[in-house]
Amino acid sequence: MNQYHQFHLELLKQPYNHLLSYSAFNSSDINPQDQEFLDNFIELIEHCENFTDQYMEKGQQICLHWVRAYPDLVPVLPRDLIWFFGGDCLHYMPDEEINQFQQLDELRYEAEANQQAFNYGEQRTVFFKLEK
Q1: What is the pLDDT along the chain (132 residues), one digit of tens a residue?
Q2: CB 116 within 8 Å of CB 2
Q3: What is the CA radius of gyration of the chain?
Q4: Around Cβ 8, how many Cβ atoms within 10 Å?
Q5: What pTM was estimated for this model as a whole?
């Protein structure tokens, strides 16, 4: 697993842990649909850790289900994951944001082609002018 995929795997674990603090997911009598979503989320993390062929499809399914079933929790879903999993998820990103992620990926591809080190997390922080 390369550094780019590792970054997104770690990013995937963060919202899962954050979701557990919301009432829909932390009660003792959790709704079966909510429990299934959490179970599928854990399965996605395992697929990403093991780099299985199914991780992209599963990631798209989780992101799409999240947006449709939990619109009030969409701010917890990192935009990076929507970009990373792509596909139909991209319908939930404006063109400007897609262009920004494409530019960042182009920087990464250029560095890889020139066999230069590229720390995705650091470059992302700089590129999007995020606080460290």
Answers
A1: 688 889 999 999 999 999 999 988 988 889 999 999 999 999 999 999 998 889 999 999 999 999 999 999 999 999 999 999 999 999 999 999 999 999 999 999 999 999 999 999 899 998 888 775
A2: no
A3: 16
A4: 22
A5: 0.89
- Residue 93, Cα to own-chain centre: how many angstroms? 13
Give Cβ neighbours of residue 79 (< 8 Å, ≥ 6 apart): 93, 97
Q: What phi and psi, each to the nearest 5 degrees, are found at residue 116?
A: -105, 150
Residue 127, token pair as written in the block: 């590129």
Run of H or E residues at 15: helix 3-19
Task: Report how far residue 82's alpha carbon sits from residue 62's, in angstroms, rounded to the nearest whole number.
Answer: 10
The residue among 50, 41, 54 whose CA lies nearest residue 15 is: 41
Quick one: how far is CA 30 from the chain centroid? 24
DSSP state of 73: G
What Å distances lie between residue 78 and 11, 62, 82, CA to CA? 8, 12, 7
